[in-house]
Amino acid sequence: MDEHPAQIIRNAKTLGLDLEEQVANGTIQIMFESPQELDIDAHYDRIIQLIEKHDIQRMVIDGMTSYSTAIGEISVYRDFFHALVAYSKQRLMTAFF
């Protein structure tokens, strides 16, 4: 949520993970949107489109606190994550939050 893809790739390298090749060949998708400009409904739609376009089977969402801060309303925050969990279960995806 609040880490640019280049930062994620750089941080992964410090752990001995070279994500650059997987990102370049499309094996790994990294989605970044600035929390300051977050439209949660549009953001949810972009996540779903990315999952369906690339037939994603595993999803990692980092930044629960950033989401909470960006969304503000606890009920909207809860609904967003409940919708993502329900969607990932329906697709039989593995999801890490």
How would you sum up this structure, described in words?
The longest helix has 17 residues, at 74-90. The protein is mainly alpha-helical. Strands 1-2 form a two-stranded parallel ribbon. It contains 5 helices and 2 strands. The mean pLDDT is 92. Helix content is 58%, strand content 6%. The radius of gyration is 14 Å and the shape is globular.
Task: Describe the structure in brief.
This protein has helices at about 5-15, 20-25, 40-55, 65-70, 75-90, and strands at about 60, 95. It is mainly alpha-helical and about 100 residues long.
Give the count of helical stretches.
5
Average pLDDT across residues? 92
Query: How much is the radius of gyration in Å?
Result: 14 Å
Q: How are the strands of the largest sheet arranged?
A: 1-2
Strands, count: 2
The arrangement of helices and strands along the chain is HHHEHHE
Major beta-sheet overview:
2 strands, parallel
- Backbone structural class: mainly alpha
How far apart lie the N and C ends?
A: 11 Å
Low-confidence stretches: none
Shape: globular
What is the helical fraction, as a range of percent? 55-70%
Question: In percent terms, what proportion of residues is strand?
Answer: 5-15%
